[in-house]
Amino acid sequence: MSNGQTLDVIVIGLGGMGSAAAYHLANRGQRVLGLEQYTSPHDRGSSHGRSRVIRQAYYEDTAYVPLLLRAYELWHELERDTGRDLLTLTGGLMMGQPGSSVVTGSIRSAKEHNLPHEILDAKQIRKRFPPLQPSPDTIALFDMNAGFIRPEESIKAHLDRAQQLGATLRFEEEVLAWEAMPDGVRVTTGRKTYEAGRLIITAGPWAPNVLAELGIPLEVERQVLYWFDPIGGIAPFLPTRFPVFIYESEEGLQPYGIPAAEGAHGGVKVSFYRGPIVSKCTPQTIDRMVHQNEIELMRRAIAQFIPSLNSELLNAVTCMYTNTPDKNFVIGLHPQHQEVTIAAGFSGHGFKFCSVVGEILADLAVDGKTRHDIELFNPQRFESKGFS
Fold first, then answer.
1. Of the candidates 19, 68, 10, the residue with the CA atom closest to the CA atom of residue 45
2. Do 240 and 227 contact (CB within 8 A), yes or no?
3. Phi/psi at 235 (5° precision)
4. 101, exposed or middle or buried, with CB in 10 Å at 0-12, 13-18, 19+?
5. In angstroms, how far is CA 374 from the centroid of its own chain?
6. Residue 374 DSSP symbol
7. Helix (H, G, I), strand (E, B) or coil at 380
8. pTM
9. What are phi and psi of 283, to 5 degrees?
10. Among 348, 297, 338, 13, residue whose Cα is nearest residue 155
């Protein structure tokens, strides 16, 4: 080997997915090298923001639920192994009109997979969670096992375990190129060249460039996360009293929120899961400034049903979604190079799956297959639809 090392697998990108892949590979005794262009965790991509919603009654597609159930098992296992507090279960409200996609899809998943849940009308929502003031025709599925996960702490936990199990992790080392060879792969960074038997690419919003030759229709979208200081104090929004939520408005907007995960001074986090403004970007061109008109748009959307969040903004930061046209993930073996595994296009709802995606990526890299059903995420599914 040109670097004097014998490696089984190289992982490019050590955010949510890459950190989990490095851990699962190291846990199987693989000789792993992880490469990250920044420190990790960092706030330049998609795996930051202090909290992320995790839920089981998945309205997007019932096929996600078995993966979620495994993800929960693995998150709990990681907590036990590291002693870190990663996952907080608060319950979750999936709210909207009775015919909205959030409500109908959540009910479908809950029933198909026998998930613990309740159906609440607007009066019951207001009584149980007083800060919420939904319109009279709003209903909700209450997902009893929903809550939030801490992304930065989760990445640290996966990376710490990976290193404890023998993985080599290199930070602030940008990958310049990769290539498949007859007997493996070669990865060139700004410092040196590495060779290994297999490669996993988890490049987040850099994936459209890193995987450009595949023609996968990935688009990066700028997002903004907001923390408001509630009128009347934080107490009604503490995780022991307030759930995570997604609310589909009559206009089709999907604001979501997370309880006061950081206590008295952290505020309540809200954002648009699917919002009114789509701002396409790249990691190089993203506008990191948060503008007053954006803040007012978010405040108006939330104040309609949580009046006490029509309040002081404590903080706002940007992040990025990497979207596919169907909003489903891309996970699988590289169509031209079976020694390369790719994971991309997590479309704003991927972080909760990091633990199980790491397991899947390790399966594919080591065995070339996985027991998990990932047909929904086939990288070649767009070829017959005129995208490539």
1. 19
2. no
3. -50, -45
4. middle
5. 17
6. -
7. coil
8. 0.97
9. -60, -25
10. 13
Per-residue pLDDT of the chain (388 residues; tens, 9 = 90+): 344 458 999 999 999 999 999 999 999 999 999 999 999 899 999 999 999 999 999 999 999 999 999 999 999 999 999 999 999 999 999 999 999 999 999 999 999 999 999 999 999 999 999 999 999 999 999 999 999 999 999 999 999 999 999 999 999 999 999 999 999 999 999 999 999 999 999 999 999 999 999 999 999 999 999 999 999 999 999 999 999 999 999 888 999 999 999 988 899 999 999 888 889 999 999 999 999 999 999 999 999 999 999 999 999 999 999 999 999 999 999 999 999 999 999 999 999 999 999 999 999 999 999 999 999 999 999 986 654 4
Which residues lie closer than 8 Å to 285 by C-beta, 6 or more apart?
none
Quick one: pLDDT at residue 139?
98
Q: Please, what's the b/e burial string for 106-143 (b: 16 or more CB within 10 A of its CB; e: otherwise)?
A: bbbbbeebebebeebebeebbebbebbbbeeebbbbbb
Residue 138 DSSP class: -
Q: Name the amino acid, one letter, at 363.
A: D
Q: H/E element holding 120? A: strand 117-121
**Cα 240–chain centre separation:** 23
Burial class (CB in 10 A: 0-12, 13-18, 19+), 262: middle
> Are the C-beta atoms of 351 and 41 separated by less than 8 Å?
no
Query: From CA 256, how far away is CA 342, in angstroms rounded?
Result: 29
- The 3-state DSSP class for residue 27 equals helix
Q: What is the spatial distance between Cα 129 and Cα 132, in angstroms, rounded to a whole number?
A: 6
Longest dimension (CA), the chain: 68
Report in angstroms the alpha-carbon separations of 364 from 24, 82, 131, 206, 325: 11, 25, 46, 21, 24
Residue type for position 224: V
Q: What tokens appear for 80 in the block? A: 């036990």
Query: Counting beta carbons within 10 angstroms of the beta carbon of residue 285, is it exposed (0 to 12), middle (13 to 18) or buried (19 or more)?
Result: exposed
Q: Looking up tokens 């706030």, which residue turns up? A: 43
Residue 321, class by beta-carbon neighbours within 10 Å (0-12 exposed, 13-18 middle, 19+ buried)? Answer: buried
Return the amino acid letter for 121: D
The angle formed by the CA atoms of residues 125, 237 and 276, to the nearest 5 degrees, is 75
